Amino acid sequence: MPQETTDPASQSTLRNRSAESSKGMGTVETETTAMDTNRQSDDNGNQGGMSPSQKHSSIDFSQKASSNISWVVVKRTLHVNIFLYAFCFWIQVGVLPYLTKKLGMDMVVYGYLQTFYNFVQLVGGPFYGRFGDLYGGRAALTLAFAMAAAMYGLLGIATTGAIVFLSRVPALFLSANHGTQMVMSDLTDESQRAEALGRINLSYGLGMSIGPLVGGLVTKYYSEQHAALVSCLGSLLSVVLIQIFIPSQTKRVVPVKTQEESTNSGIFNMEKYISLVTQTPGALFFLTVTMVSALPNAILQSMFPMILMERFHLTAEFNGYMLSGMAVVGMLIQGFCMGPLTKRFSDMALLRASVVILIGSFGLLALAQDILHLMVVMLPLTIGNSVISVILSTVMTKIVTTTDTGTMLGLGYAGGSLVNTFAPTIGGALLAACGFYSFGIVGVVVNCILLAILFRN
């Protein structure tokens, strides 16, 4: 299938070229005052036609061999840490329904807990992205993993429902996946970005596949609180790795701004977020696609552990097996298929094809009667969601300049969090009033609407 020339993501090429040095792939530009001592500056720093208030110097990749930390080590550290993040996160996802039930919280309260969690992430997502753009990859990733350790630690000592709710507060900046995508986008060219982000998701999927298994076993032989504490320790290990192996700044271009400009582009300046959405071609469209595509999956996923426990009567151990199987499928698709797919098809073509797959999958989901049927249906459902996830994240980084990738990704995550804020409440109401089949019907209707939006644009 030929590439679609009307793909909005293609508009980013001239935008980024005007912001980057004419030295090509061999050069990365960064803020003079933010450079690590382990990086060596290029004697021929290029002004790139920028104003005096936005001067920068450059770093040649050919000199990285003599640096204390090479880019290869940075990328490998990102993979290790995203594995640890997924491992720890999915341990607590698997045990959370059982812990809440143990503490006397019913299905409705569990839905409120999920809503509160997503509301907190909705508030923090855009600010986290802007924080990463301004203060660099090391600071952003450290903040995310420290918040993860705090959340799991509180869950590990929870003895009441109130403490479980309190443990969700650090989720304000629980954005390790967001931060990792931002840094990886800084280190890769646009033509290789989808493949690089897919491989990041491969490491995430590996952690997701192992985490629930470990969580189920720890819960079986010890307790749900012990499983949460294992997650806490894993997150603290990530903080240590970040401090050792991640440089403070990874941006290709970080302008040195005047004091007035720095004040006007701060983390909490809402004009920056508004202008990015309204003045960037394709931004509002893809943010809308992100939210619409996330709705049916968010409703299903918010109640999925509860569905496995209540409708299909799976124990915590077998619940973990089911989640791990889904993770393996997503891991294989994102890690090994995204590169070949994006080289042959346009972003828009892949989005449309994935939505068609989701329409059929949700239709079959409405008819699922036993666990075997459910497992078969979850295969294409996971494939469709995996492709959409990578493509949307890739496009978000292509349509803006290098200095705003974190902020744009943050807005995308905020859109998903906005949907996730209401999804548990909707999911709980659907499950109680209409039954399991209603999740499939909602998925078919929403994805048909999404397909119409994609074909119209």
Descriptive overview:
With 457 residues, the chain is mainly α. The protein is built from 16 helices and two strands. It has helices at residues 12-19, 71-102, 107-135, 137-156, 161-166, 176-187, 190-221, 224-245, 259-264, 270-279, 283-310, 316-344, 347-365, 371-398, 405-433, 437-456, and strands spanning 27-30, 57-60. The protein has a two-stranded antiparallel ribbon with strand order 1-2. α4 (137-156) packs antiparallel against α6, α4 (137-156) runs antiparallel to α8 and α13 runs antiparallel to α16. The longest helix is centred in the N-terminal third of the chain and has 32 residues, at 71-102. It is globular and about 50 Å long. The two termini are 18 Å apart.
At a glance:
With 457 residues, the chain is an all-alpha fold. The chain has helices at residues 12-19, 71-102, 107-135, 137-156, 161-166, 176-187, 190-221, 224-245, 259-264, 270-279, 283-310, 316-344, 347-365, 371-398, 405-433, 437-456; strands spanning 27-30, 57-60. The protein is globular.
Can you write the helix and strand succession as a string? HEEHHHHHHHHHHHHHHH
Measured by DSSP, the beta-strand proportion falls in: under 5%
Q: Largest sheet, order of strands side by side?
A: 1-2
Largest sheet: 2 strands, antiparallel
Structural class: mainly alpha
Task: Please give the radius of gyration in angstroms.
Answer: 22 Å
**Which parts are unreliable, with pLDDT below 50 for 5 consecutive residues or more?**
1-68, 258-263
Task: Return the average pLDDT rounded to an integer.
Answer: 80
Number of strands: 2
Taking the alpha carbons of the first and last residues, their distance comes to: 18 Å
Alpha plus pi helix count: 16
Helix content: over 70%
Morphology call:
globular
